Records
---
Amino acid sequence: MAGRLASHRYGKHRVRVSKVRRPRLAPANEERHEFVEVSVDIELEGAFAPSYTDGDNHLVVATDTCKNTVYVLAKDDPMHSIEAFGLVLANDFLSRYSHVSQCKVRLSERVWDRLGESPHSFVAKQRMVPQAIVRGSRGEAPIVMSGFKKLLVAKTTESGFENFHQSEFRTLPDTHDRILATEMSTNWRYSTLEVDFAETRQRILDSLVRRFTDHYSRSVQETLYFMGQAALAAEPAISEITLTLPNKHHLLANLAPFGRENQNEVFVVTDEPFGFITATVVR
């Protein structure tokens, strides 16, 4: 029969786990807790071809076993960062199963912030989702990439778009004063793993947000490049960063039919279609 197996991997996706870090130095209602929630994807590669081609499952680590591994290691690990937890997971699969050649772990975190001064109440107020990918390959150093998605940022001036290409289909006018809004996502690659991942993420986030605000933007492309440069300058432990800044359009509403002059105050918000801008900045 024609056709051969060219590549394969399998695992368990959307394994959702939460953990309460408890000092256990006092009754539960008197101590200060930390609350972590993570969604984990596990993907394995290795000597699994016979399960596809011959129905031979004797080396298949069940996806349910993958799920259980996440929960057991969440018990044993402090889960101080999704990157560190991903490294623990990848290393466990490689060390426990000699026929696994690669383990890829993709993690995303729901951020729970402390609610007021309560020692054990939290609120998920952030839209931003921290993410990480850990790839462990037998005989090789692990690769860690971090990032986030769904960070909504906007500025209501200090942005324009002028002197862009003229063609017969162009209808968009030049503007020197517009709303720049985007739902930012990014990922960066570490050149060393001797870092505090949580602190590194915060430094990169702070540098990106600061650079977004501190200049007149002649285009989303220019602002993206400035932000990438700022992240590399802020964090020597990363070798590259990819930013995606879809342009969330706020279009000036036409109030002339109603006898009103719109002095850059009222806008039509559109989700689709949207401008898509992405780039990778390297050292």
---
Amino acid sequence: MNIDDRKVRILQAIIHDYIRNGEPVGSRTIAKKYNLGVSSATIRNEMSDLEEMGYLEQLHSSSGRKPSDKGYRLYVDNLMQIPKMSPQQEVIIKNHLLNLAVYEMDRVIKDIAQYLSELTKLTCIVKGPSIKRSCLKHIQLTSIDCNNILMTIVTDSGIIKNAIIKSNMSVKQETLFKLCNLINDEFKYKNIEDLTLDVVFKLKREMDEDEQIFDCIIEVLYNTLKEIDVSEVYLGGTTNIFNYQEYNDIERARKFLGLLDDDKRIRKLLDRCINENDISIKIGTENYVEGAENCSIISAVYSSNDRPLGSIAIIGPTRMEYSKVVSVLGEVIKILNEGIIPR
């Protein structure tokens, strides 16, 4: 059975109405509100066919129908029209993100998660830059006292990390300055994974009498990079889901909040959703993660110089306003990729 133009228009009307109201849609509603030029009886027959084809679901024999995951998939792949943002909206978003550029990456990521949740009225998940995909931009060594040194690590993706190096010998600031220059000359703009033992031994041969403190610095450097190897994940708008009446159901709400509280499941969800070349839309059971079977997730990767850094996902019920979310997320990703994130 083929889905002809009339069925498509009826399905589209049902999806629009259900997204807006969250109530199963009947044939009379479609006939009155959408002026499709056919009778209520004809619409009812077409809805029955659409249900048989798997595009609609009927919760009860006496109720109207709602879109299925398959129906939403047809909609987002073939029917959805992405609204173009007004110049004023684009300026507001760009200015907000530009104002973040003076802050450290963790604050930027937290703010983006909250800001996107406010714009979409849904939950936003932002995965920070991966240290493995970052390059070292600068390492600073500063004497705190005779036995403690502050090491500050800065990556090109905006990650800043401080660590304390404890030494059993007094180290002069001029020695730290020399070590700092040597390390930066060798490590600057190298990928974290390029910091091999060969590189370390090469530097060590240049240390002379400073070999002991160099060993302390390298050990702390590696341990610090290892600690921040797992990207941070930030959430915004975790309670926005309660704006949708279907989450008045206690069990459904509990499952959703349980998903958000499970770092392992969230990371798994993000990994399965991400398409590095485009915005990805996963609907309902396509997510394959417990607790997300009634949700849709729209996600995208943000980059620096065409190098993927992290990802952003918007999660909500399957009846979310897909076109609006895609438009907003696409604009934010575009601005981030233009170089708004801290360098």
---
Amino acid sequence: MRDLAPMARFGGLVASDLRDVTADAGALDSAGFWAVAVDFEGRTVCARFGDVRRAPAADTDADRAAAWHGPDRAAWTTSLDRGAYEAGVRTVRERIAAGDVYQVNLCRVLTAPLPVGAGGPPPDIDALGAVLALGNPAPYAGTIRLPAHGVEIATASPELFLRRDGRTVESGPIKGTAQTADGFLPKDEAENVMIVDLVRNDLGRVCATGSVTVPALCAVEPHPGLVHLVSTVRGDLRPGAGWPELLAAAFPPGSVTGAPKSSALRIIGELETAPRGPYCGAVGWVDADRGTAALAVGIRTFWIDRGGPGRPQLRFGTGAGITWGSDPAGEWAETELKAERLLAVASGVHEASGRTLR
């Protein structure tokens, strides 16, 4: 792993010179530039870097992407096959009918072995980040490479979990996915409004009374290969509330859990057969010196798992929000839509142009 130095990359900034790594979110209220990764299951890694600068002109996405050799497109396996996933959708609908829950985000984790050449360098998540930047650009894209700490994440996330500017905090939940804007169903808007209410409640636990607002509701936002409904929830942190209190109130993100959150999490634990890891967690940066931050919801996210025997595994998660109005086949199709383009890109095919990135 000595060839893979610790680094992070967000919004044209490259962070190096690792100084500290901690699981204590309170460190984010101290000083310095931090890369942050929080697994859906709650494992937190905050890494402070001493050198943060704009990426040099020679550090191009195309040059870094050339080093990526992804898995075979046919090698991906899923933690829930179609039959199991559709059965899970039916179970969620039964739980809704019983009054246990209103909405549950049901997910599956896809896995493929990475090719490793004899004597060659280990697979580099930063090279995959460059491939994603070329093939699936996203507003909250980023890479965190901390091999010694089991964190190698590349995200092409379109979704804002938490943005901070001083004491103002903002979230941008996404609920509702279609191929085109005229493909949204009534359940998409209902689902979005439901999750907005949940996020308002989450932020209200740590924000000043009366400060939580919804500046945008169900805005249509285009992304490569699909469109989303996106809302904005904003508030002002109350005195004494910092990162530990904010994460305790808002995590895991409401858009990838369900409502009520506690009930949804119990059902997720019953139905899903693999840990989500960085998928549906939080990935991003905190500049404690300037009081600014942007954490994405860890969707459209890949991570390398080197923990098991054999070749390192590349993992990716996909899911859908299940409501009473959900059709099992339609929800499976939504998970396929969300995964199709990204898996092709990670396997070396730029679908927008049809050319390979190897």
---
Amino acid sequence: MNLSIVVPLYNEVESIVELKDWVSRVVAKMNIAYEIIFIDDGSNDGSWALVEKMAAAHKEVLGIKFRRNYGKSAALFSGFKAANGDVVITMDADLQDNPDEIPALYNMIVEEGYDLVSGWKQKRHDPIGKTLPSKLFNRTARVISGIKLHDFNCGLKAYKKDVVKNIEVYGEMHRYIPILAKRSGFNNITEKVVIHRERQYGVSKFGMERFLKGFLDLLSVSFISKFGKKPMHLFGGLGTLMFLVGFIASSYLGINKLYHVYHGIKMQLITTSPYFYIALTSMVIGSQLFLAGFLAELVSRNSPDRNQYHIEKEVNL
């Protein structure tokens, strides 16, 4: 299998047949073996019925239906797991991603040897309420990750098969797949300017709650990238620092008290000084952070049921 096209969808009944026909016309000219995997993320508008109908008529169409809505990351994870192609291309089902970009993306992986090619919607046809947060996200992600991409969240991406089989997309991490790929050792990442089309059917699934989730996910993926396999380096380091600060402060107070007692100089009890309680609190917090580091080392980050999604039906798999 040369190419797998993974299409997560949620309530896109108006567009998926047109998308499938368009993709088939484009890929047919490439003369390669391909499959289109539709992942229905709990749609309730009849999208799955169309997927089943297309799968019955076209063997290259595969389908996965979730029993309920899990989110785009869950859909991509399941699509990546099912993909058989040497190259995997993801695209949204709303026809805002242009299937005519597929040959160029495919060639960048096969001929130019990139691990991941991310689409860059240089000219976007979205409202400012969507484009402004996106610019902020992308700028922050570039600074934190060191990956020089303009559009981390573009749904149109191309991957080597090894990339999608070695990354774990969960929660809302689909925004930061290039960061996950880099963390897994795939550093040959680039971008390509792609055409962004106006939405023709349905409504956007973008909500303001994604603004906060995006930043929290970025902090999460950054933390996991740096300390996921070595949490003691963070918690132990902070704990040691806090404990040393408290220990040095309390030692100073004790030595100062002994000095005054030795020389017969009266002074207030140590416990009347606010610095005593600051030092004590610092030592307690330091000890707790150090213990948290030990516990984090013992707890496996890879929970066995993190990516257990209840799939109701499958076709052609």
